[in-house]
Amino acid sequence: MSTQDDEILQEVVERHRHCQSVEASARANYRSDLQFLYGDAYNQAQWEPAVVMARTGAGGSGGRPCLTVNKTFQHILQVTNSARQQTMGVKIVATGFGASQKAAEVLEGIIRHIEAQSNAQQNAYANAIMGQVGGGIGYTHIVTDYVRGVDTFDQDLFIETVPDPLCVMLDPDAQEPDKSDANWGMLITHMPRGEFERMYPRDKDIGDDHPFDGVQDHDDGWEEKDRVRIARYYRRSEIDDTLWNVPPMPEIGLAGGPMRESEMPDGMAAMCRKMKCEHRPVSDHAVEWFLIGGSRVLDHGDTVFKNVPLVPWIGIETNIDGKLDRKGLTRLLVDPQRMFNFSASKFIEGLAAQTMGSWIASDAQVSGREAEWALANISPPGVLIYNGTDPDTGSPIAGAPEPVPPPQFSPGYLQAMQQSDQQMQMASGQYQAEMGAPGNEKSGRAIGERQRQSDTANYHFTDNQGMALRLTGKILIDAISRVYDVTRAVQVMGIDGAMAQAIIDPSITQAHQQVTPQGPIAEPQSPDPEAVSDVKGAILAINPNVGRYDVIADVGPSWASQTQETFNALMQVVQADPSLMAKCGDLLFRSAPFPLASEIADRLKPIGDDPQAAAMQQQLQQAQQLIAQLQQQLKDKQQDFALRANKQQHDQVIDLMDADTKKREQQTDEMAAIGSISPESLKPVLENLIRTILAEQGAPNTPVPEVSPRPLERLPTTNPPGGEIHAPNPVTGAVDA
């Protein structure tokens, strides 16, 4: 064994003894409170052993009952089960230095996933709360381990149950109420020696080598013969560091700003000293662990934690004159519970005495029949025979044995039971209405107010639960950036239990960023620093090392309870104004606690509330507007075409009329010219004209009649009033009317 191991073992033993001496009374009281809390008719833990002996006698032959009507347990369950119905978790808030609320939401979802995979709500938290309310103290243990169920080298965080709080030794000199400043802690368990030798075959000789003073002191209980004590010991130390105000260095891509010397690249600290940059001393904490079996250090190493990962769930803690004590609700109910048990036992004892009276008889009357008369008050026979004459003298005996009336039954014991019951209610702050008995409250609001009165009476337990949760969240936030130190996908759980994925990427330079398989997405400039564009197929990546985050405990109604309350409130609103069903009917069914409610909500959801449907609706409206514009343009084109067609037709008519006018004027001129020709010269012209006309009519062989030319009258050159021009028939010479 090395000298360092000897020093560690000595340190562990000394701190173990110191904690034992400070918490000896508190630990003894915790054990007594838990025994009383779980007292029943078999173990009679709610009775003092001396009282039980006096009432029942040796071997239980006294015949006087010691009843146990355990009402304490129900008062404790009223507080613990109320806590189980709550949503116990933490909220992460971005507090600056580059942090973003989007990244905070991812971190919050990671912590929910850690709680879910550890089953912390049902195991670790529930067990710690039972210890807190029942005996004044409970613990949870945060550990790191490889991802379970998968062949991987990735590690994850887990929240483990501590079944027995007395197995934990935590620095009793810590001053903070949540013990976050504890400098050491240890979790001690016992293992059968045979099991230890199978698990650690190289250390099977544990306890036999290198004994040293103090460690093997059996009064201290450190080692036992048949069992090996296994201790997981945590020790926190302070690490000194220097914070430098590094100037911008664009040539190496450094933006500058505050930076710890321990995180700087090689040579940068010397450069900052040479440049005389602003600096100041700072410190941080680191926790290391040691696994100790018996009197040997089996293993040791560094942890990812900055606080001792043993979280106390404290009930009521007092320190009077240097004497530490912790208690829960049980301690306040011990005496009223004992009063109730004693009164109930005396009440039953008095009732039993009413049917078992005694007898007064002379020796002669029962001579030879003593056994029958001695058992007459326990199992009376059908006939009791007594001696009518003296067996010795034979003389008659006057009278018969006389019964002794039973003691007068006192109703005081029943009143004492009722009084002790009321005292238990006053001590716990839980009255009949809170315990389930019907009260005068009729409306839901009145019942809720009564319940809040009980919650207020025991709110110190709830507040201390929140204190423990806040420390849990703080430890996990500090550890996440160290456990997830490489780029990896993580599971994120929403408040409603829905699972999603995110990426932790320590290489990105901002708190959050959207990434796709093709690479990161450049975020558009927006006045809202939390705005993240919704890109299909993108996953949110965060860097937990960027920025600072704070933890707020969230101890409130469970998601199911919140949903039920929302449904009830919306139902009342819709009943008061049915027209709102068209506006918020989807929200009503979204919170409804029955199957197919979400499907109904999807069908009732207004289009404007669905981004995809709203986008489609907008596209449809734009298409309708475009169609309307095209229809108007088509109508305008049709009108323009009609106008152009009418104008063209009008122009064609005008052109035809002009052509006809020109033709007729030409004919008129020709006729005028003909009229100036002599008849002899006109005859061949007329014959030729007639042949042309006959040929046009389809009679080319028709003989041309003899034409006797005569002078023609000159036609007027202007149109008649009717607008028509009538030319003379070239054959007859007549003018058509």
Task: Characterise the protein shown here.
Helices cover 42% and strands 19% of the residues. Strands 4, 5, 6, 7, 8 and 9 form a 6-stranded antiparallel sheet that branches. Among the domains are: 118 residues, no CATH class; 36 residues, no CATH class. The relative contact order is 0.10. A hairpin with a 5-residue loop joins strand 15 and strand 16. It is elongated, with a radius of gyration of 54 Å.
Structural class: alpha+beta
Cα-based radius of gyration, to the nearest Å: 54 Å
- Proportion of strand residues: 15-25%
Biggest β-sheet, characterized?
6 strands, antiparallel
State the shape: elongated
Low-confidence stretches: 208-221, 709-728, 730-737
Distance between the termini: 150 Å
Helix content: 40-55%
Number of E-state strands: 20
Number of helices: 18
Tell me, rounded to a whole number, the average pLDDT: 80
